[in-house]
Specification:
Elements: H1 2-32, H2 50-55, E1 65-69, E2 72-84, E3 90-95, E4 101-108, E5 115-117, E6 120-122, E7 132-138, E8 154-156, H3 158-166, H4 171-191, H5 204-226
Antiparallel strand pairs: 1-2, 2-3, 2-7, 3-4, 4-8, 5-6
């Protein structure tokens, strides 16, 4: 009876030892296979948005690093503030690995969007040309944010902004167009020949011709009398 109890106790102890070893092995295996989001990602692994790749192809190589905020991946760029336009657009110069300007991007920020200088929120109109900051592009999306997880500012390319302003002509362009149209009208008028000459001479030439004929008639009569 005692030997049976000892055998059962030994079997139970052996089962506990084997179970602990299996659990430890499974836990070690899980640590060796991290989840996809916790794996380190590089700039070359970013799945860029097609519009981003097409309109800003030069920026792909200027990506500094990849950061993760929540469940989204962001590419970080170094940028330098250039100016704020009258219409509120903010111009940044994106820098490459050697701190050379790669491209100037025009952003129309949201109403509550600010820049971050050394983690300090700063309104765009308070920035100086020497201020450097980070811009973030979310993977698979088109737009720039001033912080990972922040709102995306609207990107405006140079030719698009020109096209949008072209719908509303300025005073200078209107004057140029009027001068151009006036010149064309003058050239067209010069090229058209009038159907009849303008009547600007008046009756004086007819009086002169009548006087001449009278003079010749009188001279003829005088010569006839002498003959």
């Amino acid at each position: 009876m005692n030997s049976l109890k000892a055998t059962c106790a030994g079997a139970a102890l052996l089962g506990m030892i084997l179970g602990s070893a299996t659990a430890a092995a499974q836990q070690q295996q899980q640590r060796q296979l991290p989840s996809e989001r916790s794996q380190t990602q590089e700039c070359r692994d970013i799945n860029w948005n097609e519009d981003m790749r097409r309109n800003h192809a030069a920026l792909m190589d200027a990506c500094k690093e990849v950061v993760t905020e929540g469940d989204r991946t962001w590419a970080r760029f170094d940028a330098r503030f250039v100016r704020v336009e009258r219409d509120g657009q903010v111009v940044f110069s994106v820098r490459d690995q050697r701190d050379r300007s790669v491209e100037e991007v025009r952003l129309t920020p949201k109403a509550n969007q600010v820049a971050y200088i050394n983690d300090r929120p700063t309104p765009f109109r308070q920035l100086r040309s020497s201020d450097s900051l980070s811009l973030y592009v979310p993977e698979g999306a088109y737009g720039f944010a001033t912080e990972p997880g922040g709102e995306l500012a609207t990107v405006t390319r140079g030719d698009e902004s020109t096209a949008s302003r072209g719908d509303e002509p300025t005073a200078e362009s209107t004057a140029d167009r009027q001068d151009r149209d006036g010149s064309r009208q003058t050239v067209a008028q010069r090229g058209q020949l009038p159907s009849e000459l303008p009547r600007t001479a008046g009756p004086l030439p007819w009086f002169a011709l009548g006087g001449l004929l009278s003079l010749l008639g009188g001279l003829g009569l005088t010569l006839r009398r002498k003959i």
